[in-house]
């Protein structure tokens, strides 16, 4: 246990380092005093001594998520933040990753965006009533900045990983760093703003229209995401002017204000696929492709076999356990879990369902929300399953609709079987016990139950409950007329030949 004298020394060193750093930044930013080498060395020495004895104190961090954009270039009535990537709204992707890093989240939306507000819950939402630019939007969330650090993120930048956000926050908390930003090196820099920097220290951001040929040759581009101390950020946001062609307050102007204040600005680089902005349907498709590649790679790294990865489409929440095999041209909608050893054959579509271990699905199968396929069960070609539990080892191999049903273990459902679950007003359930044999082309009119070990004759229409071990027939009696078939054919043939 440390002595009282050691504890007092540690507290003194830590306090001295903190207040020396504050004093230095205050003198530089408020009085434009140049820091001397001796002063810098003293601050660095005290700071280094303090962090050698204890880790940096944790600071709360707030993420402001800007989601007020209309998405005009999308030509959609849906807000841009609600456009979907891998089955999930763009804003939902950003919230999920930001929540892993930041202590607090606040979402800035536009007027009459109730669907965006609902998606953002339970995080607080503020409304930007006038769309006056990104700095103006961020300032609407000022009441939620709190203490610590604040980062401003964009709903149309939804693919930023938690790892990259952590690196941004760590860079901001590095000694003497007052502002950190995210930057990328896109394959086609185009009209992105260029980040003029040396060894990661940012001098300025130059918009493409204002850049010289030398500056346009720079491949380091601004991604727009900034992170700074809450109080300092608030001051810079309020100092941003709207002296531009659109009369808007731009968040990127904060960088110039920071540099003018003598604050050290650092760029944190990340991959283009993470930082790409999405403003059009074309860019949305490009982002979808990038995200799908990320999801496929993660699945295969976790032990999933994708026979033709580029043809398989996953959702952000798709759960595939190790040793799952997925054949080409399979689509996973939201809410799908597939357990180890299961096989999903080609051209199948799954949504809102769970497939247990060693089950076989497809080819050409459709599993809709509420489908739960048991261990080792088979759902074959052109079989549709909705809100139905299929027991372990049960089989429905061809041309069948199973809706609102419970199918027992080891039951065999023949080709062409239909559960008639809807009467035009209400849905009804079909209950089938274990070890039942349902013959081909059976019609099961719900509500109806079929007992364990029962058999249903092919072509039957079943409208009443079938007891255990029973054999049920529900079809018209067959009548055969001798020679009538030949006579009928000859009559029709003569009619055709005579015109």
Compute the gyration radius: what is it?
33 Å
Overall mean confidence score, pLDDT? 89
What is the total domain count?
3
Helical/strand content category: alpha/beta
Largest sheet: 13 strands, parallel
| CATH fold naming of the largest domain | Spore Coat Polysaccharide Biosynthesis Protein SpsA, Chain A
CATH architecture term of the largest domain: Alpha-Beta Complex
N-C termini distance: 112 Å
* β-sheet strand percentage: 25-35%
How many strand elements?
35
Report the principal-axis shape: elongated
Family: In the C-terminal section; belongs to the transferase hexapeptide repeat family.
Cofactor: Mg(2+)
Subcellular location: Cytoplasm
Catalytic activity: alpha-D-glucosamine 1-phosphate + acetyl-CoA = N-acetyl-alpha-D-glucosamine 1-phosphate + CoA + H(+); N-acetyl-alpha-D-glucosamine 1-phosphate + UTP + H(+) = UDP-N-acetyl-alpha-D-glucosamine + diphosphate
Secondary-structure blueprint:
Layout: H1 4-31, H2 37-53, E1 61-67, E2 84-85, E3 88-89, H3 90-99, E4 104-109, H4 114-120, E5 125-127, H5 134-139, E6 149-154, H6 162-172, E7 177-184, E8 194-198, E9 201-206, H7 213-216, E10 221-229, H8 230-239, H9 253-260, E11 264-269, H10 272-275, H11 281-301, E12 305-306, E13 319-320, E14 325-326, E15 331-332, E16 337-338, E17 343-344, E18 349-350, E19 354-355, E20 360-361, E21 366-367, E22 372-373, E23 378-386, E24 389-390, E25 395-403, E26 405-407, E27 412-413, E28 418-420, E29 430-432, E30 437-438, E31 443-445, E32 448-450, E33 455-456, E34 461-462, E35 471-472, H12 484-497
Parallel strand pairs: 1-4, 1-6, 4-5, 7-11, 12-14, 13-16, 14-17, 15-18, 16-19, 17-20, 18-21, 19-22, 20-23, 21-23, 22-24, 23-25, 24-26, 25-27, 26-29, 27-30, 28-31, 29-32, 30-33, 31-34, 33-35
Antiparallel strand pairs: 2-3, 6-10, 7-10, 8-9
Binding site for acetyl-CoA: 415, 421-422, 440, 458, 475
Cofactor: Mg(2+)
Subunit structure: Homotrimer.
